[in-house]
Write a structure and sequence with these properties.
This protein folds into 2 domains: 291 residues, no CATH class; 144 residues, Nuclear Transport Factor 2, Chain: A. It is of the alpha+beta class. 30% of the residues are buried. A hairpin with a 2-residue loop joins β2 and β3. The strands form 3 sheets. It has a 6-stranded mixed beta sheet. A 5-stranded mixed beta sheet has the order 4-5-7-6-8, sandwiched between helices. The radius of gyration is 38 Å and the shape is elongated. It contains 14 helices and 13 strands. This is M56 family metallopeptidase. It comes from Candidatus Galacturonatibacter soehngenii. Keywords: Membrane, Transmembrane, Transmembrane helix.
């Protein structure tokens, strides 16, 4: 489950990352031609896309990054000789499996949790510490100005207005119960107007949730440098858009006064704030960009078409990238491996078996037809192969499927080193094909414990027919 989510988000991260870098490279041109509202929306579209873990793969021409599972194989391949007819059987044995993709997925998930916890704990600590030092604003004139601007902007939210002597710039903090926190200092009426309007615009647009989305996107895609760029640029354009709204209908003198208010906050001692809050200060370089935007007299275009184009391009690129897992072909200890080995062997020898079995069946034996005898021989052969795979592969879960209900011995698997076993040969199958065996038969597995051994060992297997199926009712190793 985690691996599937990781791969889906990785697809989105790769495709959307190209869009983020492209928008960043053309930021200067976009800022000159279009209002900041559209850059603000572009980042929101890209961030939203990054949080949706699936692609609209409507096209078949995709580039696929097949990320295989990496296994540390530990299987033994032995040649079994059925009375001169050879076939290869891969014995499934216990192995250590190292799934690189699964490990990377869990590392990614751990990173997501850690980053989210850092932000959540940091936010709550900052908020609690800040509000402990705050006092309610009781200045009637100040509160009236807040109410007036809120009415002009049609801000319908309930919020508190508090002051704090340890901050240098105003801010809004609180996701569901917002609080406007103001520095304890005196402002002129015009200065306070710009400051309050700036923060109330943030409040009206739910910019705290906008920032929260960017933080979540950063957590989900913490491995992607483009996402850090997205967050940085989104936070900057958030402020530029807010500045644009503050001075939207202001004259040049008012715009200059607004920049002076920003400059005065920059000159104060800056405190480290939370990422999930709005704050009325930035670094020198960022503040310079804000001044340029505020004092810009150029008429700007509507960027709706550009915004729609970015959205369509994001969806289109998402169809070109696909990350899938590729199942390893290395065998593991399970039933499917045994079945695959049996089917593989059967497909290689079945035609040759048909020919030889037909030539060797005793034509004078009238009690059993050729087809019945051949079917018995084939069934016994497959049972012996499957049983030996489970026995030498130490697969105690599969072993009982080959045993008779009358099996009275303690079930055991091979106690030696499976990797060392060599020269495995099935003995007795030719006799089964050449005569009517009735309802019971005996075959042997001849093998060496290792390739250097001087003598063979024998695994005796006695079978009996129960209803329509052959089952093993005894097996054991003879020296």
């Amino acid at each position: 489950m985690i691996t599937d989510v990781f791969l889906s988000l990785l697809e989105v991260s790769i495709s959307t990352g190209f869009i983020i870098l492209s928008v960043f490279l053309f930021s200067s041109r976009i800022n000159k031609k279009y209002t900041m509202k559209w850059k603000y929306l572009i980042w929101l579209i890209l961030a939203t896309r990054l949080m949706i873990p699936f692609n609209l793969n409507a096209f078949t021409w995709q580039y696929r990054f097949n990320i295989p599972d990496i296994s540390i194989p530990n299987t033994t391949s032995n040649s079994l000789f059925k009375d001169g007819i050879s076939f290869t059987l891969s014995l499934p044995v216990q192995k250590e499996q190292f799934n690189l993709l699964e490990m990377v997925s869990y590392i990614w998930f751990a990173g997501v949790i850690i980053i989210i916890l850092i932000h959540v704990i940091g936010y709550w600590y900052y908020k609690i510490t800040l509000l402990k030092e705050c006092t309610l604003v009781v200045n009637k004139k100040y509160l009236e100005q807040v109410d007036l601007i809120a009415a002009q902007l049609k801000v319908n939210k309930n919020f508190k207005v508090m002051s704090n002597c340890n901050i240098s710039s105003p801010m809004i903090i609180g996701l569901f119960h917002p609080v406007m926190v103001l520095p304890k200092r005196s402002y002129s009426e015009k200065e306070s107007y710009f400051i309050l309007k700036h923060e109330l615009i943030h409040l009206k647009r739910n910019d705290i949730f906008y920032k929260l989305i960017m933080v979540l996107v950063q957590a989900l895609h913490w491995y992607n440098p483009a996402v850090y760029l997205l967050k940085k640029e989104a936070f900057l354009d958030l402020e530029l858009f807010c500045d644009e709204e503050v001075v939207k209908e202001a004259d040049m003198a008012s715009k200059k006064l607004y920049t002076e208010v920003l400059m005065s906050t920059l000159q104060k001692q800056l405190n480290r704030g939370s990422a999930i809050s709005t704050q009325f200060n930035e670094g020198t370089v960022i503040m310079k960009k804000r001044f340029i935007q505020i004092l810009n007299r150029r008429e700007k275009k509507n960027g709706g078409v550009m915004c729609l184009g970015i959205l369509l391009l994001t969806l289109l690129l998402g169809t070109l990238v696909s990350c899938t897992t590729k199942e390893s072909s290395t065998s593991s200890v399970n039933n499917n491996d045994i079945q695959n080995a049996e089917q593989e062997s059967e497909s290689n020898i079945i035609n040759e078996q048909d020919t030889q079995a037909e030539n060797k069946i005793n034509n004078n034996d009238s009690s059993t037809s050729k087809d019945d005898t051949l079917n018995d021989a084939q069934e016994i052969e497959e049972i012996v192969k499957g049983f030996s795979s489970a026995y030498f592969g130490k697969n105690a879960e599969v072993l009982p499927t080959y045993l008779s209900e009358a099996f009275g011995e303690e079930m055991e698997v091979y106690q030696g080193d499976t990797e060392a076993v060599s020269d495995i040969t099935i003995k007795g199958l030719t006799d089964i094909q050449n005569k009517n065996i009735g309802d019971s038969c005996v075959v042997w597995i001849e093998f060496k414990q290792d390739s250097q051994a001087d003598s063979y060992q024998y695994l005796t297997i006695e079978l009996q027919k129960e209803s329509t199926e052959w089952k093993i009712y005894f097996y054991g190793i003879e020296m």
